[in-house]
Design brief:
Order of helices and strands: EHHEEHHEHEEHHH
InterPro entries: ANTAR, CheY-like_superfamily, GAF, GAF-like_dom_sf, GAF_ANTAR, WH-like_DNA-bd_sf
Oligomer: single chain
Strand order of the largest sheet: 1-4-5-6-2-3
CATH architecture of the largest domain: 2-Layer Sandwich
Number of domains: 2
Structural class: alpha+beta
Number of strands: 6
Keywords: Kinase, Transcription, Transcription regulation, Transferase
Protein name: GAF and ANTAR domain-containing protein
Distance between the termini: 62 Å
Shape: elongated
Organism: Paractinoplanes hotanensis
CATH superfamily of the largest domain: GAF domain
Length: about 260
């Protein structure tokens, strides 16, 4: 029930249900489903595959969900749909980004669960709801997915039916979002480690080329790469990659 501190606007605080939530909903076989999902996501080979797996799991698990997508905000400014169950999700999200309003953006920035029951009667985001109706979407449910430094995320669910999402949808969605956030963090960490190892290997190869070519030490070769990186205003790993691929170092700024 809404209070004077928490208006009845269909939003819930981070990690908690929206104000439309009444406490109903059954667990059923949810724990097993989430366990299976977690194991499946661990087997994905890339962060993009992990995100697509989360979107697919949301459609399969959350009652009422016909479509699902993941929104990522880099530096709290650059908003993109990182994964989607289908093209409709990207079209609806594009409407939100262009209008600068919608349940997805509220979930991301306000750390809330947002349930939009009927686009036809909703008055919080008039520009967005009018255009979303034209795309055939009548209800949405959005959860903040993670916060990492200045990067934000949200899990968004869509349906062509009005009132498609209920308390059970929120129960399942909140739990799924928690598991998904852990999977995303693990996938991102593994991706970052892979990138770091690749960069280290490239720099090592580039140092070897310079050492052989100029008969210099490893430290001297590294400082030469670092100076070139600074003067060209290009990342050190990219300087190393260019040298390894082309054998050239001085003309990288002319590419």
């Amino acid at each position: 029930m809404a209070t004077s501190e928490q208006p009845d606007d269909g939003r819930g605080a981070q990690g908690r249900p929206s104000d439309s939530y009444t406490g109903q909903g059954e667990g059923g076989e949810l724990a097993q489903m989430l366990s299976d999902m977690a194991r499946s996501l661990q087997d994905e080979k890339s962060i993009e595959d992990t995100l697509q797996g989360i979107a697919a799991a949301a459609v399969g698990m959350v009652p009422g969900a016909e479509h699902a997508g993941l929104t990522v905000v880099r530096g709290r400014r650059e908003v993109t749909t990182r994964a989607a169950s289908d093209d409709l999700v990207r079209r609806v999200d594009r409407v939100q980004y262009e209008a600068g309003q919608g349940p997805c953006l509220d979930a991301v920035y306000d750390k809330r669960t947002v349930r939009l029951s009927d686009m036809a009667t909703e008055d919080r985001w008039p520009d967005f709801t009018r255009r979303a109706l034209g795309l055939g979407v009548h209800s949405m449910l959005s959860f903040q997915l993670y916060v990492q430094h200045d990067d934000l995320g949200a899990l968004n669910l869509y349906s062509a039916k009005a009132d498609a999402f209920d308390d059970e949808s929120e129960n399942v969605g909140l739990l799924l979002a928690s598991h998904a956030a852990i999977a995303m963090a693990g996938a991102q960490k593994e991706h970052d480690l892979s990138v770091a190892i690749s960069a280290r290997d490239l720099i090592g190869q580039a140092k070897g080329i310079l050492m052989e070519r100029h008969k210099i030490t490893g430290d001297q070769a590294f400082h030469l790469l670092a100076r070139t990186s600074q003067h060209a205003n290009i990342k050190l790993a990219e300087i190393a990659r260019y040298l390894v691929e082309t054998g050239e170092l001085t003309d990288i700024r002319d590419r």
